[in-house]
């Protein structure tokens, strides 16, 4: 390989400078220069000889390959992956620090019956061993533990060379985390955009050249994506996000991109003292602590991917002491809450302008679906009127600005799930066209 040097390339306009600067000298954007490795010139300039000549392959000449996926032994994970891991693919597992990425990946490496190498840049093998002991008490001997080995290394090139020299070649490589990996070809610190991108690119090349599956673990921060996995999304085949609220034990694994499956599926887990447990019926747990006969509660039927779930929405409406009354929502979008309060004030003539409104989604779930609108309105109305909703009532539907209830997708699945869990009265766009049903 030719010797490489580095340049600082603006992510906005693409101009390059030899030194780092706070502002791009070309386009003036701040903080847009990222260190990038440049290969030495191959001497193929304008007017010189063309590169290799290749004949394009005809579609009819391409032989279809049957994808044999590797079963991970964790069915919620398999579901999100679209039926298992595709050999030779690169998967990015992203999430906030402390959400459970290492836990999930350790559980996976124990269950999978393949030779795997855990490149640990964050923790020592001893620390991971402690976690493994915690995850499963005794029956480890029966599992494929001997097939799992550890490589404490943060230098990407050494790690790749070590992995590539193994015989037999491991079929699964876990890199935890990509933020700790660096290459000496760049001068930037581990965790900088340039280092993350270059390291990930080198792992990806290993995966494609040697047919190994690589799982990269990446941290995201609340502020977002700058030095995080966002810069890698185009490099990898599959992006999985592990989400949840740290103060609750629910974790949702969501596919953000999947070259080998749909991104509609979600996996649901519960963080316990023995690691992440799979949850086959999330509604059961969301509704576990529900109190019936208390005003201010409504059951919403929401979809997570293609899975219907029943969640409790709680509202508290009390007279306000403030000139501008409070609107506080947890688990729902604030602007959506303000909009629904405005619709309720206008269409149902509720004098909410002098009341504080608090809304909470029980269980720590984050609702982004407008289908929860009707349930939110119902919980608010119920608290305001101090009248409990029926214990067997489940609700879904989007609420429009005119107070109309609008149709949402997957109505049949929602109704089926609600009925399955014993909710006999279902208020949906099919049964009520208007918000006024809520005050009946
Ligand atoms: P971890 O997987 O280390 O998070 P990440 O790799 O995403 O940074 O998990 C962190 C949290 O999970 C930690 O606060 C402890 C908790 N935890 C459990 O509750 N039960 C367990 O069995 C394990 C292993 C961790
Ligand atoms: Mg970790």
How many domains, as an integer?
3
Reading off the top of the CATH hierarchy, the class of the largest domain is best stated as Alpha Beta
SSE-based structural type: alpha/beta
Question: What is the residue-averaged pLDDT?
Answer: 86
If helices are DSSP runs of H or I spanning 4 or more residues, what is the number of helices? 9
Strand content: 25-35%
Strand order of the largest sheet: 6-5-7-8-4-9-10-11-12
CATH architecture of the largest domain: 3-Layer(aba) Sandwich
Give, in order, the helices and strands.
Answer: EEEHEHEHEHEHEEEEEHEEEHEHEEEHE
The set of bound ligands, ions and cofactors reads: thymidine-5'-diphosphate, magnesium ion
Shape: globular
Helix content: 10-25%
Taking the sheet with the most strands, its summary is: 9 strands, mixed
**CATH topology term of the largest domain:** Rossmann fold
Task: Output the CATH homologous superfamily of the largest domain.
Answer: P-loop containing nucleotide triphosphate hydrolases
